[in-house]
Amino acid sequence: MKPRKHDQEEIMSIANLPGNLEMYYDDDDYTDPWREPETIVLHHGNAKNGRLWYAWVPLLARQYRVIRLDARGFGRSTVPPPGYDWSLSGFATDLLGLLDHLELDKVHLIGETVGGTIALQFAYEHPDRLHTVTTCTSPYKFVGAPQYLENYNLIKEQGIEEWVRRSANRRITPNPETAAHNQWYAEQMMQASPQVVMETLAYLANQDLSPILPEIHTPALALVASDSDTNTPDRAVGMAGLMPNCRLVAIPNATGYVQHSEPEKCVAEWREFVGGLG
């Protein structure tokens, strides 16, 4: 395992990975210096970056090493040229490269929205590298859902800012008490490369993980909002029903993307899930 923050003044936060990828990551570890903690990797979704996990870090980093990555094309990581061959398997390969770079044999992988979809792909391809896999309001079947191509066309015609504005309310419910957070959240998404977001939306529109889910035996947790109108509990029931070792939890009295609106509740459920594994 590579040196931790306790062992040197600074850990390089860029991993040079195959495929001309410089992957940025944050490495937070506030565990006791004499311990060798397990590691959690947090994977963001489309048009996002690792910063959006900020509220999870203080809830986890006292007991775990926490890695927040910026996936290929997003945040501070390398943006490939137009026409890049996007795939869930490609994202999983990038993640594998990061684990190898950090000399991490096994991790707890948590993904939000499409980051959770990538996490499922990773669990299918590399189950030996995981303790657990967790999805947060993550789709598994994109085929037949018109919004992906609709969003593609909206970004193409009116720009990524308009797409973010129109879709903001389904992510985080408007609330005067959280207005500053919601604005910051939207601004983070508006910084994403329109080219990358459009290309990944076009790719995802044809994907369906249903055939591989029964082959995922890694202990799994699926988190959703009880009152969401997208990525609803009934959709998650379909996903959990296909996976032989998946626990589904609907966060009560919650809407939208609970990983951002209810981080404390999500982490509490995750801790209970992991603690129950013995």
Major β-sheet profile: 8 strands, mixed
CATH third-tier fold name: Rossmann fold
Structural class, judged by helices and strands? alpha/beta
Backbone CA Rg: 18 Å
State the total count of DSSP E strands: 8
What report would you give on this structure?
- An eight-stranded mixed sheet has the order 1-2-4-3-5-6-7-8, sandwiched between helices.
- The protein contains ten helices and eight strands.
- Helix content is 37%, strand content 17%.
- It is globular.
- The chain has one domain (5-142, 207-275): Alpha/Beta hydrolase fold, catalytic domain (Rossmann fold, 3-Layer(aba) Sandwich).
- It has 278 residues and is an alpha/beta fold.
Descriptive labels:
single chain, 278 residues, alpha/beta, Rossmann fold, eight-stranded mixed beta sheet, 10 helices, 8 strands, 37% helix, globular
